[in-house]
Every structure is written in C-alpha cells, then in structure tokens.
Amino acid sequence: MLRSIIISMVCLFGVCLTVNAQIVISGNVRNSVTQEVVPVVSVTMKEAQNGDYTNDQGNFKFSTRKNYPVTLILSSVGFETKEIIISGPGFQRIELSPASVLGKEVVVSASRFVQKKIESPVTIERISSKDIINSPQPSYYNMLQGLKGVDVTTSSLLFTTITTRGFNTSGNTNFTQIVDGMDNQAPGLNFPIGAIIGLTELDVDNLEVLSGASSALYGSRGLNGTMVMTGKDPFKYQGLSAQITQGVNHVKKGKANDPLGPSPYYDWTVRWGKKVNDKFAFKINVQYTQAKDWMANDTTNTNGPGGPRQDPNYNGVNIYGSKTSVDINPFLEGALAQVPELEPIISPMLAEGRHMVARTGYPEYGYLSSDAKMFKANVELRYKIKPKLEAIVSGTYGQGNAVYSNDTRYALKDFHLGQYRAELKAEHWFVRAYTSRENSGRTIIAMPTAQLINEAWKPSYDGNTGDGWYPQYTSALLEAMSQGQSYIDASNLARTFADQGRPDAGSAQFLHLKDSISNIPTSKGGTLFTDKSRLFNAETQYNFTHLVKFAELIAGLNYRLYRLDSKGTLFPDNDSPIDVAEYSAYAHLTKKVIREKLSLAAAFRYDKNTLFAKPRITTRVSAVLEVNKESFIRFSYQNAYSFPSNIQSLQSTPVDYNSFASGGSDRLLNGVYQFNKYPAYTLESVDSFQRTKNPADLKQFALNDIKPQSVDAFELGYSSLIAGRVLIDVLGYYSTWKNFIGYVNVANTPGTADPNAFLDHGTYIQYNIAYNGAEKVNTYGYAASVSVDLSHHFLAKVNFSSDFLKNRNNSQVNNFNTPNYKFNVDFGNTGFGKKERFSFNTTFRYRPAYFYQIGFGSGTVPASAVIDAQVSYRLLQAHSTIKLGGVNLTNTYYRNGFGSPAIGGMYYVTFAYNVF
Question: One matching Pfam family, short form (predicted)?
C-alpha cells in the first residue's frame, strides 16, 4: 500500500514538473549572403506572445511553456520573412535572405497607428536608421533637405530649421518636432532648437515628416508640418555602439569671402543599450560635436546701392552696428550758424534734402564667436510590468553654442535645454508626462549689442557736451569739402576721423565692451535676455479598436502649461512668470469599406488656449482607394487652426538700438506700447515724412489684438509600387489661409503724439510686430518622386517639388521663402564586392534663385547645386565600418536663407563600431 502511494506521488510530481517545465529557444541569425550577424531581428513564436530580438551579436534567447515542435517567425527590415519549425532542443543557426524594402516601409505618424507608407492618407516621408548609416551627411538633420517637399534654413552649423509647403524661416513656430512623444520646442521661443535637444546620431530608429497641416493629430503648432522622431528601444537595439567622425571645413581661406582657414570638425557619439533581463532594459547616449562655424558674410547694402566706400549710409546685411543711421542736416545747420563762411557748401547740401549717415559696423567674423559646440546626453530606463505593459523614464539634456537668424542674428552661447519624461505604455493605451526646461545662457543679440558698443566707445551725440561721433564726422566732412574733396571722398575721410579710437573686433577693449553690454539684461539697458521658461505636458491616448471592432478608433487628451520666465527680457514678465495653458482632445476614426478597398478616415481635435477666449476645432477627413495591388489614390481635407505662439503673442525684445521684435497681443499694443495714445505709423511713411516734412505722408497702421490663424488644405495623391522595383508618388495640394500671421514694421513716438517728433531720430521707436492680415492667402503646389531598385543593392531616387504663394499680402513679412521648384537626386549601393563589404551613396540637390524675407531684411538667395558623396568599407570581423565622405564636394559656397551663413565644403572620415 505504502509502495503504491509513493509511486503515485512520484508520478504526480513528474507530471507537475512536465506541466511547469519551460523549454528554452535560442539561436543565432546571419545574412545568407555575407554571413554577417543580423541584429534587431524579431523572433516570435507563431500564435503566441513569446519572443525576442537578436542582439548586436545576432543571438536570441527566450523561454516558453509550449512543447516541441514550435514554429518561429523571423522578420527584419531588408530581409525576407522566414518561418522555421523547431523540433527539439539545441542552438539554432538561421540564415535570412536580403530583400528589397521598396513599398514595404511602415509609418505611424500619419494616423497614429501602424500602416504601410504607400497606404498613408497624407504625404509622409521617412528616414530609417539604415538610411542614416548610408547617408553622406555627417548629421541626420541635414539629410532632411533631400526629402520631397522639405525646405531648410541653415542658420549655423548646428542650427537647421525644417519646414514643408513653403513657409521657411529660421525659428519656424508652425512646424512641430516630436521626439519620443515629446514636443522638443524651446518653451519660451516656441521653435525647435536645431539638433541640440534631438536624438543622438546613433539612437535614431526612424523619423517621419508629415507635409503641410497636421494639427488634427499633433496640435495647433503643426500648420506647416510635423516631424516625429523615434529613438531606439533598448529591448530591441542592444550592445555598445560608437561612431567617431573627424573632418575639415573652411578648406580654402578667402573663397567666397570665408575669413577662416582649414578647421577641424569633430563628432563623437556613443550608445550603450542593455537588456538586463526579460523585464528591465536601459540605454545611455552621449554625443559631442565641435567645429568652426560657417560665417554670415553678406555685405550687400540694405540701405541702397553702393558699398561702404560709395554710400555714407552703408548698412551691410551681416554688418552689425551700422543700423544706427542719422540725418546729419541738423549738424550741418549748427555748423552753418557757427561758421557762416561755410554757406556755399552747406546751403546746397541742405537744399538737396536728407543726408543719412550710418555708424561704422562690425562684420560677423571677429564679433560673434565661430566656435560651434554641442553636447547632449540621454538616459532611458524601461521596465516591463507585464509583457504588454511597460514603464519608461527618460532624461535628455542638451547644451551648445549656435546662431540663428530672425530679426537679427542671435548667438546662442551656453544654451541649455532639458527634457524629462515618465510614461506608462500598454498595447492599447499610454499615459505620458514630461517637462522641458530652457536656459538661454549668455545669448548675444548681434545688432543692438554692436550699436551699444559703438555708443560706449564714442556716443553718437552727447547732449551735454555737444560732442560725439556725428559732430566729429560733420566737422571733418566740411573741412574736407572746403579743401575741394567730393562729397563721397570727404565722407570717407570724415568716417576715418570720427572712427579714431574705435576698437577692432576681437581686441581686448572690444571684448570687454561686448561682454559688459551682453551681460546686462535688456530690461536694464543691455542686450542679455535671460529666458528660463518651462513647459509641462501630460497626455493620454487609448486605442478602442479591440472594443468597437467595426473600425480603427483612437482618442486622446492633452494638457500643456507654458511658464514664461524671462525676467522682462523676452516677455512682459518683470513681476512674475506668465502662465499660458492649453487643453485639447482628439479622436481619429478609420473604416475600410467596399471589400476593404476603400479606407475612410476622420479626425477631430478641440483646442483651448488661455490667452484667447474662443476654443478652436480642427478637422481632417481622408480617403484612400486601393486601385489595384500596391497602387493607392489618396485624398485629404484638413481644416487646421493655430493659436499664435507665445513669441507671436507676447515677445518684446530689442533687436536694434531703437527697435523691438514684438508680438501682437493687445497686452503689448495698448498696454506696453500705448498705441491707443501714441499711434503707430508704417515705417515707409515715416521715412517719406522725414524726406518731405509733409505730415500728410504719415500713414497710421491699425493693429488689433492678434488672433488664431487657420488653413483649409486639400491634397490629392497617388502612390504605386510597380513590379516590386519602382515606387512612385505624386501629389498636388491647394490651401487657403485666413487671418494669416505675418509681420509689419511700424513706428511711434512714445510720450508724444506730435508727428514732428519723427524728425528727431532718437525720439521714435520702431517695431516689427506680428499681426493678422485681412486678405485670404493661397498656397498651392505639386510634387513627385520615383525610387527604382536596380537590383544588386543599387537604388536610385529622384524627387521634384514646387510651391507657390498667391494673393501675397504685401503689408506683411510672410516668410514664404522657397523657390518655385527644387529637385534632389540620390544614387547608391548598400553592399557590393566580396561579401558586400563596399557601399556608397551620392546626392545632388538643386535650388534655383528665390526671394527670401526675414525680420531684418529681404533679398534674393542665389541658385545652388550641391553634391554630397560617401564610400564605405565594412570590417566584418570587427563589426566596424570606415566611411570617407564629403558634403558640398565642389566647395561652392551657397546660402539657403537671406542673412544666413555661406556654406562651404566639408570632408570627413568616420569610424563606426557596431552601428546598425
């Protein structure tokens, strides 16, 4: 009896062990052609949730309670999906066959769920981590200028602004950049700060660019488009990776007036991703970049024809300090009263009208630092509470020196921006909270700082002594003319005399004055703005598709708080920070009908901003028709609203000795500037009045409280994959803008409504103010792209796009800065030769000449044709790659923005370890 009981218990225990026992599936995955290990391969069990990703050595390992045999599904971008049956224990060695990726790309941003790119209801462009590896550009940000319909403005080496559909300017507040779910705008400035806070070079999984209005899903800032960047998941991308790029730019001193000689370029990036166990993983990213920046050196005279030796009122585009311009006639009249013998010289001059004379300015080189630096670091921790419930905590910090162009050139020195996130993410929902914290560092505003430097070493006019730069200039001018010199020759002699004692740029005296002035806040007479604004954001989203069944339904809520804190240097927040809150809710519904050949979708968004009384509703409807296999026609309509940014509403920043860049809120217009007491006149009419002395020439300009702008956008497109080898995409769009926000230049005389005050240069103030134009503005355009798989890993691409502005409001600076057409060509190979060790890529970008407007001026950007190329060699056993490349190979300097720097060639060598 006892023996039977023991035998029964042993059998039962054995059954329990069998039931609870887990089998371990492990193996290694390699490329069937090159025998390289293949990382980031998804290895999952068929009809089960168990699985793993291959690590940087190509290995995978996971356990399951299922019994043999089991079926594994292996998939990875660039390889054919493979199923294998595992009959028993043992280490598996598996090979995957390379395959074309054309037409197989998937995107998320277009509808907030996964879909094939060619089935997207709106135009979307995508860059993957493999594209970045094969690119000749040393920075993935610069790759964006090769995408269809994308415009960029390069303000400096580390500050590139991106947009679509034509509205292109440095510091674009209507283009949204989202990094791992976080809006990476600077909280006070409201535009993305170039690459300073973006993903590091090695941590980009993919980025997607939505062209045109995208407010329905991404909020009111997305009128010109949205870029969504996704970092690499440490559960998926594992191992230590490093990339070192050493290069040289400014290779020929003096070419295109480049004042610098050959200068080194350094970029070092490290990423470490580690899956500690099935529940916990982390990643650490660090990147440091240092180089000599491109310099803005356009010397074109903004005050008329002639250079500094031909025009006494010369003010170069990138010459700072010469914006101080005075009519010397009052000084001539004073000289005539003191020395009547000068009447034969002075009287004819007074009869001619005004004689405007500008102070001598400083070029950018020697004034603004050419040291471009960027450091950024990221840490992310992930913990799987359940297989499909993940907790994520991350922190990103960026610091650097860069320059951007707007109302003048702004040198961001020691700029800091941090973003910190906590998130819970499940299969059908997420909850995310993050904060962004900005510190403007020691930012230098180029124009007013230079003007104040001039006033510091010698005032334009000292009312107490009657002396100053202009009295000295006038005295020397008259003396030279009395000796028979022409007006121009006498003017040059007079400038030399008045400039005696002027410190040279870069001298000890100059640097002392610059540091002193730029360390005094704008609110106290200096040019330092101390912006420490913050952004707080909380959002949640739920995918109801598994509940409603009949359609794809996604809904979400978002709350955002801007805490503007500039101590009165950027906003009217002297007494306390200004809080601006935004509330929004959105929903997106997709339904397939007619045997799932037609996909219909609608999105709705509700937005409320506490600066404005009325909420706004944004809509998007779309239809995608599958014409035949791999061919789709898409149509979309979007009605998008955009609340004015904090800059467009509340900015009040000096950009000139007597002028401000200003928002259009009534809080400024009638509260701070008191336009209701001291009317605003157009700057053109003030200039006319100063010439004619006729008050009738003055034209008042009515400015009302700024309000949201809106756009109705239509798009029709067609995408098709032909024979698995040719991918085409064509589109056309038409948009109507209402209450379009542009800028106007006006002036008033604070403290007096007497128009004659405009005759005294020092008594009136100029403003570049954001306001709504009354006219409807239309934009339209078309684009096309063709990608051809030429087999054996050869791929050719070409894209063409064209954008136009109709009904331009000539009273506004509208920033529609794009050529009527542009095109890009790309040709490369991702693997050829023995074991496909070699690869190369070349790109060609062409832009014809086009007109460019920006706050401090406007003019023509010359045509440019730029060639970039790289060739790479892989060291298979060392898991490394050596790349030799160059951007702007011909070193033909070009600009892509008025007042922006001249961009020359850069040549580099890159060593990359374990980069995939």
Answer: CarbopepD_reg_2
